[in-house]
Amino acid sequence: MEVYTTENEQVDALRRFLIENGKALVVGIVLGIGALVGWRYWQNHQSEGAMSSSLAYQQASEALAKGDAAGVSAAETFSAENKNSYGVLSSLQLARYHADKGEFAQAETQLRTALTQTKDVDLQALTALRLARVQVQQGKADDALKTLDTITQAGWAAMVADVRGDALVSKGDNAAARAAYDKGVAANPPQALQALLRMKLNNLPG
């Protein structure tokens, strides 16, 4: 089941960048539906430690891609031992793996871990947005709304409104959901997200 419809390309591209370059990065990501809006980052000096972390991350990522218990365990160990950008990406990959299998409780655990691994506000916003989506999938609409309240940057307004509307629909509050979707449209998001929001508005009962 696809829970993530907006960020996978961005995270995959960032993962490839880290693997190919092997540099310690602090990353902020600004996302748009269906396309890469952009990301910002600055790099620290390259060191043997950074190269070692990059190699270990690549190995953990490849192990997880196999989809077996050993691979999942290797990725979980790497995530737990690395409180940095590599650890965040590993946690996000694990969350995506579990969500795709319908294991939303495990996905939530990994996303909560990811939130502790970075202080970058955009990467935290990305993680919180994914967490809110997973919480909606679990029927935890109130938890999802609280999670969304932690995302305060203006650049995320439309995406937050989209997930907020979904959470409110799941609660049966169609009037509040309509207000949320309207707010998302008013934020003038990229065309794909705007079309999605308008479709959801049109599908709401009068």
Give structural notes.
This protein has one domain (8-203): Tetratricopeptide repeat domain (Serine Threonine Protein Phosphatase 5, Tetratricopeptide repeat). The two termini are 29 Å apart. With 206 residues, it is mainly α. It has a two-stranded antiparallel sheet with strand order 1-2. The protein has helices spanning 8-21, 48-65, 69-81, 85-100, 104-115, 121-137, 141-148, 157-170, 174-186, 191-203, and strands at residues 25-32, 35-43. α5 (104-115) runs antiparallel to α6 (121-137), α6 packs parallel to α8 (157-170) and α8 packs antiparallel against α9 (174-186). Mean pLDDT is 80; it is low at 1-6 and 21-46.
Q: Over the alpha carbons, how many angstroms does the gyration radius reach?
A: 17 Å
Distance between the termini: 29 Å
In DSSP terms (H or I, runs of 4 or more residues), the helix count works out at: 10
> Looking at the structure, what is the overall shape?
elongated
Number of strands: 2
> If classified by CATH, what would the architecture be?
Alpha Horseshoe
Level-1 CATH class name = Mainly Alpha
Assigned CATH superfamily: Tetratricopeptide repeat domain
Mean pLDDT: 80
> What is the total number of structural domains?
1
Helix-and-strand structural type = mainly alpha
How do the strands of the widest beta sheet line up side by side? 1-2
- The helix/strand series, from N terminus to C terminus, equals HEEHHHHHHHHH
- Low-pLDDT ranges: 1-6, 21-46
CATH topology: Serine Threonine Protein Phosphatase 5, Tetratricopeptide repeat
Largest sheet, strands/sense/barrel:
2 strands, antiparallel
Helix percent reads: 55-70%
Kindly estimate the percentage of residues that lie in beta strands according to DSSP.
5-15%
Domain Ancillary SecYEG translocon subunit/Cell division coordinator CpoB TPR: 15-205
InterPro entries: SecYEG/CpoB_TPR, TPR-like_helical_dom_sf, YfgM
Subcellular location: Cell membrane
Keywords: Cell membrane, Chaperone, Membrane, Transmembrane, Transmembrane helix
